[in-house]
Write a sequence for this structure.
């Protein structure tokens, strides 16, 4: 199992920024394994509790992606050293005690768990997400809601997973007997393939059609091109809709924008309410930071919060990452959270990555893959062209501030195709080591150019 943990560490390194990975993941040591449990050693109690509080759900998700769904993580302290109960003067600016809560309760929903921290009460509502929040809450709270299907449409990190799990947690709390299944499209696909290969398809159908009251299905865009899976899901949805069961989907792409989506499934996905979540504006970002700071018991002065809200603009995860890094740097380096530290942290974690052009990235990719920009913009679907094209699109999204439509024009593609390619590459680099190395090498090339 040590090899499994090393594989998971590799996946975590791709998911987390360098600071978070170095502080919390790299020091963990594999100790032992037994009966679907992996025991890891932490350098101290603070490290153990911090990992439990902030990264346990992510660790379990990466274990699942590595093919070890259901494995538990046991964290132990390697030595008798204890973290001081009081932060040194300058730790959080006030020398007050740092609260270290226990690992959050998890609610089982099928083979997966809902994160109990994802609730409607701690979801920050703004103009960007008000309607999505309202319809999700209405569907979760009332068994007599006029609609039973909801499609949450949003890019990564904007809160769609929070809302779908908040709905699941609410339903479980209000209707304890409700049979809730929370799965990703990848889970659904792998489970169906396993059922087909092992003559268990009838059990698979019973599970999703007869033994399910609420289906929470994430990352629906990965169904693109999977014809047999789409057909089975279509029949499953027919069964659930006929019984007026609750179904909630999430995806960064609308049903009509998902490449290779069959018309029969697309019509079913659009039969309910479709709502989008946009990037949060300044005031919403400010409230998110302030709430996250309260949850972490971090003293965040108003001017620091406003500075971060003005400069950290991508998504909620980026805001959480900046705040977590500030807290960690403040604690370990015994520095007060002031404007100087905030500016240093933003500069370190959010380098000036919007200083290159799409054309420059295309040239770097073309040189590496020995192709040309005309080929990238062609309609060719041959892998020798489509592979570098997808990577170039992903890098343009990562290293420029151009819109999806603008990037699309450079590749002769529409915005839906651009977003699909970005999500596809983002998913593949977590499981394909060869592709991850290619992307890392090209990232270094681009960053050296803009340094």
């Amino acid at each position: 199992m040590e090899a499994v943990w090393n594989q998971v560490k590799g996946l975590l390194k791709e998911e987390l920024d360098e600071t978070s990975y170095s502080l919390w993941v790299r020091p963990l040591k594999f100790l032992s394994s037994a009966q679907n449990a992996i025991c890891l050693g932490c350098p101290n109690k603070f490290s153990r509790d911090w990992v439990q509080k902030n990264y346990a759900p992510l660790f379990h998700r990466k274990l699942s992606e590595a093919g070890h769904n259901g494995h538990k993580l046991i964290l132990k302290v390697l030595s008798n050293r204890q973290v001081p109960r009081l932060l040194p003067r300058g730790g959080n600016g006030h020398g007050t005690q740092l609260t270290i809560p226990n690992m959050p309760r998890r609610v089982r929903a099928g083979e997966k768990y809902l994160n109990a921290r994802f609730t409607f009460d701690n979801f920050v509502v703004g103009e960007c997400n008000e309607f999505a929040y309202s319809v999700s809450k209405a569907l979760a709270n009332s068994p007599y809601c006029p609609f039973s299907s909801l499609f949450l449409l949003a890019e990564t990190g904007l809160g769609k997973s929070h809302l779908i799990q908040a709905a699941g947690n609410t339903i479980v709390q209000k209707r304890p007997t409700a049979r809730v299944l929370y799965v990703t499209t990848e889970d659904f696909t792998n489970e169906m393939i396993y059922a087909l290969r092992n003559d268990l398809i009838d059990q698979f159908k019973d599970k999703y059609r007869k033994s399910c009251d609420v289906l929470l299905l994430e990352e629906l865009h990965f169904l693109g091109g999977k014809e047999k899976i789409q057909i089975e899901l279509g029949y499953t949805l027919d069964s659930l809709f006929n019984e007026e069961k609750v179904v909630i989907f999430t995806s960064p792409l609308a049903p009509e924008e998902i490449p290779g989506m069959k018309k029969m499934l697309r019509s079913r996905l659009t039969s309910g309410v479709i709502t989008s979540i946009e990037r949060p504006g300044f005031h919403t970002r400010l409230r998110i930071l302030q709430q996250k700071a309260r949850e972490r018991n971090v003293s965040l002065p108003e001017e620091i919060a406003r500075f971060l809200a003005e400069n950290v603009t991508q998504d909620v995860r980026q805001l959480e990452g900046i705040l977590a890094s500030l807290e960690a740097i403040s604690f370990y380096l015994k520095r007060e959270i002031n404007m100087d530290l905030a500016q240093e942290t933003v500069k370190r974690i959010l380098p000036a990555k919007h200083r290159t052009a799409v054309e420059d990235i295309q040239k770097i990719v073309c040189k590496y893959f020995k192709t040309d920009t005309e080929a990238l913009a062609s309609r060719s679907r041959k892998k020798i062209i489509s592979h570098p094209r997808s990577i170039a699109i992903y890098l343009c999204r990562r290293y420029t501030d151009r819109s999806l439509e603008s990037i699309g024009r450079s590749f002769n593609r529409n915005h839906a195709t651009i977003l699909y390619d970005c999500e596809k590459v983002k998913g593949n680099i977590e499981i394909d080591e060869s592709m991850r190395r290619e992307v890392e090498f090209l990232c270094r090339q681009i960053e050296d150019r803009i340094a």
